[in-house]
């Protein structure tokens, strides 16, 4: 375990301090110690390719998805984007983020079966197109539990017993938004420029979660179940669901989602579903402010999602990063004033880069990108995007730097990676 910790620390530190090399040097085992070779959960360099998609519903909803593997050795996130359910539910929409752990199989399975199970349960319960909050909440709850039950059979058959996934989902009807959360992915609704609602993360150290874990024979140490699993509710994770004489919702890891309903309002602006690769780095209020600002200068929701992903990476996220952004008719619109302010900010940043570059040259110091970023980060820059700060304009700064050094701008990507933690 010492090798894994040391290797990961060195690799991540090297990247964030501007290192350009490959794998970090591995500490050799001390005399008398047996070398323990454990695959690192992190890569030497992050995978920066992004998956994006966009779409709309006939009733005025627009949405975009952004997803990136990042530092993780494997991509374990999956998603659902269904803007129109069809049939009697043609004016209903469903979106979900599945954040897998210990493999991607469970997250993939749930992304393929959860919605169908919810709809089957709803049909069996006679819900139809009736927008009855109690019936819908019941269908979502039972849909999760039945999916977990079916998953258990598949897991035994396929050997997935170690894997699991968190889920955060939103079912949008003409009158309500139904949220279902199981784990530590999160949904957030912004209304009139403020956070109106957000789901609660299910962590082992939360009092009610800890009580259930201990009653099922488990323990909570280093904020994890039995010192290992960092979430207290999930689909899958069947090695934590074997306590005898206890129902599925009474096990150490519960598949029971917390289902909440919020009545829709003309003041609703946008809704975010994202994995903990986002929420471990940025708060609800910061992300609400940042997206609200970006929507006034950007019409492409895919670009807004990409900016959020870059912001989380630059702030130090080491996880897979996935976000779904849903915009209602009341979302902020493109603003001429905001566009003007954005242009002024980028002009200011470009002039600052030139000023710092020239000053370093005059002092006889190497004007490398990391030095420029470090000085800029400690400078007072007015007009930065709220919730984003200097990190949210990193790409603009990098482009200005390479223009100053007469290097083709596309070369900025590699050096941007090595300096992304400044």
From TrEMBL:
User: Entry's PROSITE patterns?
Assistant: PPM_1, PPM_2
Enzyme Commission number(s): 3.1.3.16
List required co-factors: Mg(2+); Mn(2+)
Q: Which InterPro entries match?
A: PP2C (IPR015655), PP2C_BS (IPR000222), PP2C_C (IPR012911), PP2C_C_sf (IPR036580), PPM-type-like_dom_sf (IPR036457), PPM-type_phosphatase-like_dom (IPR001932)
Q: Where in the cell is it found?
A: Cytoplasm, Cytosol; Membrane
Keywords tagged on the record: Cytoplasm, Hydrolase, Isopeptide bond, Lipoprotein, Magnesium, Manganese, Membrane, Metal-binding, Myristate, Phosphoprotein, Protein phosphatase, Ubl conjugation
Domain of life assignment: Eukaryota
Where primarily located? Answer: cytoplasm
Bilayer topology reads: Lipid-anchor
Chain segments annotated as coiled-coil in the UniProt record = none
Q: Which GO terms describe its cellular component?
A: cytosol; membrane
Identify the residues that the record assigns to the PPM-type phosphatase domain, covering every copy.
62-328
Q: Does the keyword S-adenosyl-L-methionine apply?
A: no
Q: From the UniProt record, list the reaction(s) this protein catalyses.
A: O-phospho-L-seryl-[protein] + H2O = L-seryl-[protein] + phosphate; O-phospho-L-threonyl-[protein] + H2O = L-threonyl-[protein] + phosphate
Q: Which family does the record assign?
A: Belongs to the PP2C family.
The record's listing under PANTHER family reads: PROTEIN PHOSPHATASE
Q: Self-association or partners: how does it assemble?
A: Monomer. Interacts with PAK6. Interacts with the phosphorylated form of IKBKB/IKKB.
Write down what this protein is called.
Protein phosphatase 1B
Q: What species does this protein belong to?
A: Gasterosteus aculeatus
């Amino acid at each position: 375990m010492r090798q894994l910790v040391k290797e990961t620390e060195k690799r991540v530190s090297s990247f964030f301090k501007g290192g350009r090399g490959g794998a970090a040097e591995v500490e050799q085992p001390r005399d008398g110690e047996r070398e323990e070779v454990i695959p690192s959960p992190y890569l030497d360099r992050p995978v920066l390719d992004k998956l994006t998609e966009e779409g709309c519903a006939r009733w005025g909803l627009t949405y975009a998805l952004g997803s990136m593997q990042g530092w993780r050795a494997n991509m374990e996130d999956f998603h659902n984007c269904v803007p129109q359910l069809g049939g009697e539910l043609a004016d209903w929409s469903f979106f979900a983020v599945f954040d897998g752990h210990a493999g991607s199989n469970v997250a993939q399975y749930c992304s393929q079966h959860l919605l169908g199970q919810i709809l089957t349960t709803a049909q069996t319960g006679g819900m139809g197109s009736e927008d009855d909050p109690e019936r819908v909440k019941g269908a979502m709850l039972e849909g999760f539990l039945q999916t977990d039950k079916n998953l258990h059979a598949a897991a035994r058959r396929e050997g997935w017993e170690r894997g699991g996934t968190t889920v955060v989902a939103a079912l949008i009807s003409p009158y309500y938004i139904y949220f279902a959360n199981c784990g530590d992915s999160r949904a957030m609704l912004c209304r009139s420029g403020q956070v109106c609602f957000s789901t609660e993360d299910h962590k082992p150290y939360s009092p009610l979660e800890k009580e259930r874990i201990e009653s099922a024979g488990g323990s909570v140490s280093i904020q994890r179940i039995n010192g290992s699993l960092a979430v207290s509710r999930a689909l899958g994770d069947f090695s934590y669901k074997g306590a005898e004489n206890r129902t599925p919702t009474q096990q150490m890891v519960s598949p029971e989602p917390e289902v909440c309903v919020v009545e829709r309002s003309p003041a609703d602006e946008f809704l975010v579903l994202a994995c903990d690769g986002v929420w471990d780095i940025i708060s609800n209020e910061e992300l609400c402010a940042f997206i609200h600002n970006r929507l006034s200068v950007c019409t492409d929701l895919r670009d807004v999602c990409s900016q959020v992903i870059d912001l989380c990476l630059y702030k130090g996220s080491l996880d897979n990063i996935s976000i779904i952004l849903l915009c209602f008719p009341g979302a902020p619109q493109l603003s001429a004033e905001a566009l003007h302010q954005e242009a002024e900010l980028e002009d200011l940043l470009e002039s600052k880069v030139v000023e710092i570059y020239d000053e370093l040259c005059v002092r006889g110091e190497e004007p490398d990108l990391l030095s420029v970023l470090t000085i800029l980060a400690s400078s007072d820059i007015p007009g930065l995007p709220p919730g984003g700060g200097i990190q949210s304009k990193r790409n603009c700064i990098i482009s200005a730097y390479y223009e100053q050094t007469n290097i083709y701008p596309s070369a900025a990507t590699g050096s941007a990676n090595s300096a992304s933690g400044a």
